Amino acid sequence: MLSMVLRSCTRLSTSESCIREVGTVTTVWEAVTVPVLSPRQRDVLKSMTLGLTNKEIANQLGIRKDGVEDHINVIFQKLGASNRAEAVAIAMRKQLLKM
After folding, report:
1. What is the DSSP secondary-structure string of the chain?
2. Greater confidence, 67 or 5?
3. Among 2, 8, 9, 98, which one has the highest count of C-beta atoms within 10 angstroms of its own C-beta?
4. What are phi and psi of 81, to 5 degrees?
5. Which residues contact 3 (CB under 8 A, 6 or more apart)?
6. pTM for the full model?
């Protein structure tokens, strides 16, 4: 069923048409868009799930706090998140982390 939906969406000219066809954006986009995170980005994201601060993550991973902040910004961008809680929720929903 999903492959049929994806084929029909790729033939449609706009995402709005695809939404009408499928019913929700989530159904289609979550099926086809799984962000690729680097191993270090996954390490930072996993530490975020534990509620660690940037400084604690830096100490744990042996990198600078600025580096952690850079990784977090890239994670937000790749996941389409605007904060840590949203990034963790998206990562859990898309099963990006092995817990």
Report:
1. -HHHHHHHHHHSSSHHHHHHHHS-HHHHHHHH------HHHHHHHHHHHTT--HHHHHHHHTS-HHHHHHHHHHHHHHHT-SSHHHHHHHHHHTT-S--
2. 67
3. 9
4. -100, 155
5. none
6. 0.67
